[in-house]
Amino acid sequence: LDYQHVQVPFEITLWIMLASLAKIGFHLYNRLPSVVPESCLLIFVGLIMGGIIYGLNDRSPPVMDSDIFFLYLLPPIVLDAGYFMPSRPFFENIGTILLYAVVGTVWNVFGIGFSLYGICQVGAFRLQDVSLLHNLLFGSLIAAVDPVAVLAVFEEIHVNEKLHILVFGESLLNDAVTVVLYKLFRSFCEMPTIKSVDVFAGVGKFFVVGLGGVLVGLSFGFTAAFTTRFTKDIRVIEPLFVFLYSYLSYLTAEMFHLSGIVAIIACAMGMKRYVEANISLKSHTTVKYFMKMWSSVSDTLIFIFLGVSTIGENHEWNWPYICFTVIFCLVWRALGVLVLTFFVNRFHVNTITSKDQFIIAYGGLRGAICFSLVFLLPDFHRKKLFIAATTVVILFTVFVQGMTIRPLVDLLAVKRKRESAPTVGEQIHIRFLDHLLAGIEDISGHWGQYYWKDKLEYFNSKYLQKILLREYDQPKSSIVLLYEKLERKHAMELAQAGQLGHGPAHPSLLSDRTVITDQKLEDTQNPDVLDNMQEILARNLYRIRRTGPAYNRHTLPGETEPAEHAKEILILRHKNL
Amino acid sequence: LDYQHVQVPFEITLWIMLASLAKIGFHLYNRLPSVVPESCLLIFVGLIMGGIIYGLNDRSPPVMDSDIFFLYLLPPIVLDAGYFMPSRPFFENIGTILLYAVVGTVWNVFGIGFSLYGICQVGAFRLQDVSLLHNLLFGSLIAAVDPVAVLAVFEEIHVNEKLHILVFGESLLNDAVTVVLYKLFRSFCEMPTIKSVDVFAGVGKFFVVGLGGVLVGLSFGFTAAFTTRFTKDIRVIEPLFVFLYSYLSYLTAEMFHLSGIVAIIACAMGMKRYVEANISLKSHTTVKYFMKMWSSVSDTLIFIFLGVSTIGENHEWNWPYICFTVIFCLVWRALGVLVLTFFVNRFHVNTITSKDQFIIAYGGLRGAICFSLVFLLPDFHRKKLFIAATTVVILFTVFVQGMTIRPLVDLLAVKRKRESAPTVGEQIHIRFLDHLLAGIEDISGHWGQYYWKDKLEYFNSKYLQKILLREYDQPKSSIVLLYEKLERKHAMELAQAGQLGHGPAHPSLLSDRTVITDQKLEDTQNPDVLDNMQEILARNLYRIRRTGPAYNRHTLPGETEPAEHAKEILILRHKNL
Fold first, then answer.
1. pLDDT of residue B410 exceeding 60
2. How many independent structural domains does chain B possess?
3. Average pLDDT over residues B518-544
4. What is the rounded CA–CA span in Å between residue A167 and residue A159?
5. Segments of chain A with pLDDT less than 50
6. Dmax over Cα atoms in chain B, in whole Å?
């Protein structure tokens, strides 16, 4: 038996297997997942596993390695979140999300930090040796809402899109703030004296970390899109690039101490549109499926590890400190949401209702990020107290808040997500309103959301698409393809009958695919059916094609070449004769 | 900058990226891949990379770690090979394949080992210190044909299926022999004296290693199939199980010193049939796509690393030894193929032609497995000579044989793979002949291939399918589904009109999906089209369904329950009225 040799991959595979089997197990009994969130069940499995390991070895089970968490488990989840992020509600609410993520998190950090310092001054609790800086450091790691925990719970309760994006967007974007504050306080803890210049450097650093992450992410995203332009002959490795480039963006950002989460989200959102247009349909299915699978496994592993790591002797159970931490987390978040929403509502027409505010405050779940950060703390004599407090906060938020949020949503009758997709009419109206508002903003000289969106769209169609998209993008709808074939066939017949003179009737006839297409067509269609189809299609589709794909502020209907125009009219007239 | 922290994943990602970009690069220029096999190009890229690293650092570039190769790069390729193995030609030629793989490899090992020992006795070459055992050890690692190299070349030349499976099957199954002989000679090298009992133990060990691998693989394969029975509610992690179980089978086999390659192939071939039936179509696309992608990347990395590792100062260039190694590899393989094929042809009707024999002998490419094994050799003073000889043999076979085999196949007019799929008529005839031959073998008391195949099929349908397949297996063809819907709808109408008494007309009406199905049907079809369709379908499909899926020796046409039978006839008569 040679276990040493295969130990690493064997144990990794076994853990993933355990996670997958646990997931199957829950879903076998249908009622369970509808009452208890999966995250709770997984932590529970982890607790049992940890108990078994603890019982057998009589020592603490291994805790989740922070490196493994940040380098291997977190990226797939964030990538999945970024790739499937609904971009419209995200950008519509970006201001509010940033306010919650930046100001809200800072508010929570300082609120929790200072009030816990106050608690430490009470003699009876025996906590006088925990300094203000340590309390602020602890506040910086416990304040941040966790995207993994939020996603696990909010995916199951189906609240309306705006509410979902507000909580989820905040949990993703607060990473930049958390990174900066956590590292700042940690370095302050090790410094002998703190100068005021360090504090200002910290504030400046926030912008570097956040915007740097966006820049790194976008550059990798565009490179990924550019790379997929050239994969036409080797479709099988297309999905790889999506994963490789986004992972590289995360690692690069982490390497430069920027926010990896922000980078990977920017990368995923940046590349999605172009990659989807470039890669084949099967590749895209694989990308989507594998992303979901991977994030689902990562998610499962994180919660199981959370459970396992909870068992053991890493904790110092000073209950006053722990209880006050839970209370302050709840109170400061509630206050923060109330105050910030008050300001947000003053500047918006679509206000955030008080029910929504309650869910935003109540949905501030903590998770594995805090847990990993607390283990990364430098060793000092009260680290075990912080670990205990973090564990209790996580378990409290995931179990108590996670399990009660669904009944609360039902009870408050919070507006739910609409189940049906928007109708064509609605879509057209939304689009029309976008253009209208962009125009109004342009005339009134107000550079608002629609103005910038419109400018971005112009930049995209004028430059980005030309660089990042493949040149010959085939129309994907089969009805358009069929119409194209029929048109070509007819033009060929006309040309053969000599009615159109010497040149080919249609520019696309020059492409060498035509012959094959035609042969196929003749094999499969009989002339009666064909004529019939052609008539229907010509009546309906010709006009659509003539007027261009859709109204666009930056192209005029008359922009097609007049020569082509004239020729097509000629063909049409010949046909009618 | 914190490079240390992200180094491992960052460098892995960069290597994979390099490999993928290299692949894209070759395919951009269309003529290149049709002349030079991709494996040669990749080794060439590796050589350049190695040269750059060597030039910059002035020391040997890092060689491919044998652990990385055997634990991470080889399994995906073998899994892909096993999963997409055409099982019919494989099992039809299993005897010949095993003969080549076992006897042929032993023949090569001893042939090459003894003749190289003869060369070592020539005083002018200064090789007297290389013992017979060392030569045999070297023979055991250089004799084995490499599946990765064979696959890379044979996938591009499209020879006929039988020839392909003979070379490829041999390259896969000789792993068991290689493992045993390599480990045997290596332990002999370290033993002071060798007893004859050790030699017999070695022979016994071969059966343990090979059959043990098959057993481990099959048990994991069936467990995988069994697991996918329960993934109905959680489709997204289905593809995971295919990868996890097959990887576990490989690792478990390696752990017990069995043949990992044989295990993973047995696992993949064992589970394929059941897994495919259990998992969803999208999951299956993902499995196939990801397997291809993964093996393609592994393959690319292996050849690049081969190139990189070639550069450096690990070699002792004793040219006589190296040249004679190349010559003996060619000569002994050619002799082995000739002799073994002579015996094979005496017992078979479909003989292996002399052209095929030449391609089998010429297609015996060596690759990364030899390379990894030679680096795993215990340190002794002539290890660098063995490394040099192995490198030259690999480069010679991959470059010279790999590049000339395609022109030779053209020149000899070797029978090619048929491009078209077999027609329905052919398939029916093949099936009919199978049953006929199984019957003849049964009557004549000859327990041949068809007899066992038939017994296996019986065992499969009687026991395995019941355990491993999901109970409610839906027919997947849309025409069958449509017919089912129409039949149900009609039965419903009859039941509503009271023509069939109280009970529901068809057992399947009891399922709760019916109502939804019916509603959908009413939405989409208009009555005229529906009646028309129903008539056509009823005429054609009803009879097919009545007589069962196909003729089967183990089920009789009358085996459906008589009650159901009677009811269906009743429905049919009512309809005709």
1. yes
2. 2
3. 54
4. 11
5. 475, 501-524, 541-552, 555-562
6. 103
Give the 3-state secondary structure of residue A204. helix
Answer with the one of B365, B387, B412 that is the final residue of a domain: B412
The enclosing domain of B388 has a CATH number of 1.20.1530.20
Residues B138 and B253 in one domain: yes
**Do A408 and A436 reside in the same domain of the chain?**
no
At residue B382, what is the residue type?
R
In a domain, A552, yes or no: no
Q: What percent of chain B has pLDDT over 70?
A: 83
Question: How far, in Å, CA of B44 to CA of B66, rounded?
Answer: 21
**CB under 8 Å to A204, separation ≥6 — which residues?**
none
Q: What is the pLDDT of residue B529?
A: 65
- Would you call B293 and A239 a contact, using CB atoms and an 8 Å cutoff? yes
Residues A458 and A342 in one domain: no
In this prediction, residue B523 carries a pLDDT of 45
Q: Which residues pair with A507 in a beta bridge?
A: none
Where is A147: in which H helix or E strand?
helix A147-157
- Give the minimum alpha-carbon distance from A227 to chain B in angstroms, rounded to a whole number: 8
Verify that B193 and B278 share a domain, yes or no.
Answer: yes
Q: What is the pLDDT of residues B115-170, one digit of tens each?
A: 999 988 887 877 788 888 889 999 998 988 988 888 888 888 888 888 899 999 99
At B203, list the tokens. 């022979």
**How far apart, in whole angstroms, are the C-alpha atoms of residue B52 and residue B311?**
10
Give the domain extent around A131: 3-412
> Is the residue at A184 inside a domain?
yes
Give A17's contacts in chain B (Cβ within 8 Å).
244, 248
- Establish if A486 belongs to a structural domain: no
Same domain? B116 vs B45? yes
pLDDT digits (tens, 9 = 90+) for B248-275: 999 999 898 888 999 999 999 999 988 8
**Do residue A258 and residue A378 come from a single domain?**
yes
Q: Is A29 within 8 Å of A41 (Cβ atoms)?
A: no
Clarify whether residues B387 and B439 are in a common domain: no
Residue B570 inside a domain? The answer is: no
pTM greater than the 0.80 cutoff: no
Task: Return the residue in B208, B289, B291, B294 with the most chain A beta carbons within 10 A, the one to mutate for interface testing.
Answer: B289
With an 8 Å Cβ cutoff, is B226 touching chain A? no
A402 and A464 part of one domain: no
d(CA A196, CA A170): 29
